[in-house]
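> @MW can you paste both from yesterday?
MW: sure, first one:
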Amino acid sequence: MAFLTQKKFDFVSRGLASDTFGVVRFRGAEGFSRCYEFEIELVSTETEIDLDQVLSNPATFTILREDGDIPFHGILAEFEQRHQVDEYVFYRAVLVPKLWWLSLTHHNQVFLDKNVTEIVQEVLKDGGLTSLDFDLRLQGNYPQWEYICQYRESHLDFVSRWMEREGMYYYFEQGEGAEKAILTDSKMAHKEMEQGKTMYYSPPSGMDASRREEVIKSFVCRQKMLPKSLKLKDYNYRTPSLDLSGSAEVKSQGRGEVYIYGEHFRTPEEGNDLAKIRAEELLCQEKRFSGESTIPYLRPGFLFDLQDHYRSGFNQTYLTLELTHEGSQTGFLLAGIQKGLSELEEQPYYRNSFVAIPANVQFRPERKTEKARFYGTMNAKIDAAGSGKYAELDEHGRYKILLPFDLSGNKDGKGSAWLRMAQPYAGTDHGMHFPLHKGTEVLLTFIDGDPDRPIVQGAVPNPEMPSQVTSADQSMSKITTAGGNKIHMEDQEGSERILMHVPGKKTFVRFGAPNDPTDDKDFNEKFDKRYDEKKSDEKKDAVPGSPEAEWDGIAMETAGLLHVKASAKNELIGGEEVTVIVGTSNEAVFINKNELIAGLKTEAVFGVSLAYEMALKGTFGPAEWNIKGSHEAISAHESKVVGNRLDAAESDIRAHGQRIHLAEQDIGAHVATIEAAQSSIRAHGQKIQAAEQSIQAQGQKIQANATAIDAQGQKIKTIGNAMEACGNHMVTAGVSMKQSGTKLDNAGLKLEQGGMAMKSAGLLIHG
């Protein structure tokens, strides 16, 4: 540009000719863990500059000096075409490093099984940087995290937040044609400037102020009080009984303690390491040195030695933390254009202000980047590697999920870590858990609002997975599993009931009002069909007063084996009428003591075979029935003998046979009652089956000892079975049986006498 007579600052955009712009004035700021920013006012004779071309190309602002230029490379975040004076057009540019690009990317994503350095590198590259744009100079070892969430954050905020947490920070080095971000966690990474390390303190009143152009003009020390110690505490559900804490000393002469909860560390070792970082964060703020200088090569992240300070202790090595630059060359640039310049504007100048700490103090960044918090719930879906037929959990009962904001496309259990699910009831060896299947919609909540600490709060229905209870059955409470198993409770007045149903095995138990599952084949084969009293494939509620309503109570039905086993003391109490219908073979086994109490009417209906075995002695109420060791009764259809005595004996035998027949009828009269009692026993499940097994075992002994009454044995066994089961109710039957037994004894004696008479008659005939 023809109007330039001399310049101290320069600006070049690689998308335009190098002499397109002249720098009027500038102001810039840079520091640890922040992107530098230079606001530069430019002038040009070009009126048709392509703004897109300028913004899409790198640019460089340079402080020119004889002993080596000081460049600041980067990109333009903003560019303005402002106004025109004569043939000159004024522009404004904002120069930032390429790292600033990360502020333009806002994301929601999840990182699995990675440490902080891996996450930072991945995010930097996703933001547009290459490995040439940054360098990691780290000394620490960083643990792997199974789940880290970036939620509603820019890439820059996300990286800055995690680096601040871990005590990492960054600054910039300026190369030949580009800047490089240096990420570090140690004071060992810092070095001196190429232009020189020694800086001289020379206030404006100094004798040598005029002979040195680049000096430190002011240097102020500020020191503040610090707490004595710092303590961290957290909770890790993997080690619930562990006192998870960490501590560190901040300053031995300090006062007070800083206590922080919820920093999300997992072991005491991590807690102590993190506490040390937090303590160093406070300690590096204790003593800060600030000053003003005309030294343009002061840069954050680099060391300098101070000389000539009046306090000898201040003459030491420092680490520069931040700078603010300011400069102008208005007079040189616009000489002859603007006639009304002030004396200050006519002279070019550069100055800066800075903040530094002693080089032997480890710097840690303040945690300025706010972490996104989520107070409330978030929708998600249960995920798994399998088909979803069965729930997929790990050894701790945790689930994988799919987050609605995750754009990674990772699924089949690869989109999240294992997450716990909140339970309504839990304990050391007890609790409640209904497993969730793949695709189930759930609500997530976050511990302390931390997106890195999600937990499954519960499942919610949707049109694809509807609610089990709707307006159609609002009086019901339901549990229905994925396999079709059901526990349904009806609270409708007059129809109260509880139903337990296993459709796949055609088995149910119902307590209360009748509404039993249908026997329809299609219904039973379709396990996932909802049990709903409004559906046509189920029975309707019985109308009060109808015959069906009389079946209120307990109903059990199964197409398979019904096995009831009881021990110790068992009681079965029947009402006014008890009916038990059993199949081909039935057993009841009683152990120790068993009671059967029947109501006013008791019926027992037995199938083809009923076996009853009891001891040699049975007691029923006040009566006692004894079965002899051996009995035999034979009643022939017809006998022919010679002699009056034989005829008389035969007549006696027939008479006693009639008495036996009458006794048999008397015994048979009680069979119906006994059968009703046996039916009641079968109807009541576990206690009845145990009782039947005992009866069968005891019946075997009776069968071995009752050979004397073989013709009537089966009926007597049946009578004995019912008499044992009916107890006190069958006292009368027991007495009758005792009487019948007496008759049988008498008949046996007379038969014996008749036999002797027949023998005598035979002797007479033989003689």
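MW: second:
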Amino acid sequence: MKEDFDPVVSPPGRKIVIVRCGASWTLALLLFLGTKNPHIPPSSPSLCGLLVDARSSSIAQYKTCPKYIHQNGYSRCKFSVLRTVVDFLKMRYQEKDTEHYTFEEMTEKAGLLHLNAEVKEWLVKEALPHNLKVEVTEGMYYLFKPPLPITGRHSLLRLLRQKYKKGLGGVMLSDVQECVGPRWKKIMRQVEREVLQVVRKADRKLIIFHKDKSLSLSVSEELVRVWRGLSFSDSNKTDEDIETYLLQEGLF
């Protein structure tokens, strides 16, 4: 990944640069040529920058000078590190990798080579244990926690059948996508004839249900057309009224 640093106008002896950190831009005050800033002490742990591998991470890298980031920018950087870790675990799960990782292995493979002590402590004690997409096992091993226990076509159909038998409805397509990644289109084509797909009116999300073929009925297109053309002016009609109406129309 190419480092992004755009100089702007600054006082003599100081240089303001824009450091790209994840999806956000953060102002970093770089002190050099022996100039010191009394307002930002170099020893302040809460303002220490994040040093990571810019070639394999979404966090920018800057090694030549100390980096001091204001509190809001630093907070955004922390969450960008968390997002990088979660995305790494999700990608490995989608590739059917069931290996559990220690914190050191996980951050190294994710390209986060040099995290400061405060960020590490925040990840280990707060961010990762409370993240709904991360599971921490005994021995402090980390793995992705999918919204559904599926890895492919067979596990999806099995889950839908179980939900159907228990009367629990279906699953959202977005959850399937998060579990299987880019393979979701291929999987949906494979199960197309074995599931029902319904768009929820409230939020336009697609819900997938098990298709019980034993309930399928063969109905003529003419009957369907006539039935859809029927209308009742009074919504308080009883079953007897509806039966009488159908008899009059020759449909009963």
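> thanks! The chain has three domains: 5-144, 153-215, 221-252.
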